[in-house]
Amino acid sequence: MSTDTDNESSSNSCKAPDSDGEVAEDIAIVAFERKMDTAEDIVDGIGDRYESIDILEYHGDVFEEYWGEYDCFIGLMASGIAMRKTAHLLDDKWDDPAICVVDEELTWAIPITGGHHGANQVADDLASMGAVPAMTTASEAADKQGVEKQAKALDAHVVNGDSTVATNLAVLDDELGPIERLDGPKAVLVDDDVTVLKRNKDDGVVLGCGSVAGADVEQFHTAWEQALDEADLDRDDVEFIATGTRKADEEGMLAAAEEWGLGVIAFEKETLEGFEGPTPSRSKELIGWPGIAEASAIAAGSEHDLLAEKTRYDEAVTVAIGH
Length: 323
Prior knowledge:
Blueprint: E1 2-4, H1 12-15, E2 26-31, H2 36-46, E3 52-57, H3 62-66, E4 72-76, H4 79-86, E5 98-102, E6 108-113, H5 119-127, E7 132-133, H6 138-141, H7 147-153, E8 156-158, H8 164-172, E9 197-199, E10 205-211, H9 217-230, E11 238-244, H10 251-260, E12 264-267, H11 269-272, H12 282-287, H13 292-300, E13 306-313, E14 317-322
Parallel strand pairs: 2-3, 2-4, 4-5, 6-7, 10-11, 11-12
Antiparallel strand pairs: 1-3, 5-6, 8-9, 10-14, 13-14
Protein name: Cobalamin biosynthesis protein CbiG
Domain CobE/GbiG C-terminal: 205-321
EC number: 3.7.1.12
């Protein structure tokens, strides 16, 4: 059985073009007959985040039969079954479908292959249904944003997948720094330890964003809409949201970005210090951080410039527009 879903409300991670297998768009839930009700619950719970989500009844060769037709399999079964039935099919992490297993009670969501290529994404989505994502990829375990995850947030794709081993190690060691943006036409010569990201669409503006702790989704929505309206722009002009690492876990911002279909990139303090904006900031005096909204907008913009200086909305959310 299959269910095709409307992608209008899906998150950025599910909408970005998937030339290198970095996101999951077409999902198959593999379930035993007795677990079909749970499979239907999963479709109802997260199906609108994907282009399509099918339910396949388990039999011994089901993975082999459908291998290559889906970005990710959700195995509604013990992890050992999924591992034994797919081990001989695995060839290359950039081409293989991802696999995430979940138990019948939706207690655990465990990516077992392709964590950075769809399985972590699916596990995160299953968390909205109560499952605990059991991430074992190093960058997620260290609460850092690996290059594949940065590519998703930037609506880009990795051109040279083998390079991510070296660059993600640099992420773990805090040695990678911000992604460099290069406008063409140019020819670029890189070594094997340089990851190249290619944008999936034309450059737009970046919303640099700071907030008070606990600002809610609607406050972010209102702030972004007003900032764009004052600049004679709309949400289709926005590439992504930029902020500082100290604000990267703001639930209201993350939820608002997901509803807008945008990714979030977070910059370290040391990076933002090199891109301070023109408006004085109290955070500089109080905690030593430059103003997050302007500095992150400048750091993230393709021209490292401000289109609109920061404005504070509802005494809760600060927004600047970079380009």
